[in-house]
Amino acid sequence: MASYVITGASRGLGLELTRQLSARSEVGKIFATARGDSPKLQELAKASSGRIVVIKLDVSDEAAVKKAAAEVEIGLAGKGLDVLINNAGIRQFSQKGTSSMENLQESFTTNVLGVHWVTRAFIPLLQKGNQKKIANISSTVGSITYARLVQPIPAPAYKITKTAVNALTVQYALDYENEGFTIFALSPGWLRTDLGGEQADLSVEDGAEATLVKILSSTKEQNGQFLNIKAEGWGEKYDGSNAPW
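^ Short chain dehydrogenase reductase, sequence as received from the core. Prediction below:
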């Protein structure tokens, strides 16, 4: 059975991905990481008969990332890791625009360096796994093609860092394609979470389900690509075709 690591699993998409994966018979261990305490995640883990293991991890702290990877290695008991889902991230607002934003460094540390540090730390475990998949949760607001369309959204640091995550994804995909890895960026859609807000398009349950469909069905042909979910009734917005860079 496949093993998973999910970062940012304390709430929102990460928590729902953990919940839905734990209901699948083909899934073995799920290492759900969270920066702080999460009663909902702990409750989910207690009801999982040991399938969900909660790991403390702040992705913006490289030392904490290394410690978490060591804990996961112990939990795998000599086996490899199959799938890494880099989901942890922050979205900060800057009402005065790009030139005045003071949060780019913090956003970059969490959203880009965090993905890099986590990926680098878990690559050795993935190399011993069967599936060798890495899904980096991104967003179409980071698409340069869509820059003018999403310009009114007052979160320039978030947009910039998601663009950077996409570029980072491609570099890792090229570096590890000869080892059989499938590494891709994935937009889960605009979801009704604490980050997405109540006005968002999709429920977190529907977004997580569509996200898992993409992750579970991905093959080496998707290596280095920017995937988008498929959701009925949304036309081209969520038609399952690749998102533009």
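Strands lie at 2-6, 27-34, 52-56, 83-86, 133-137, 182-187, 226-228.
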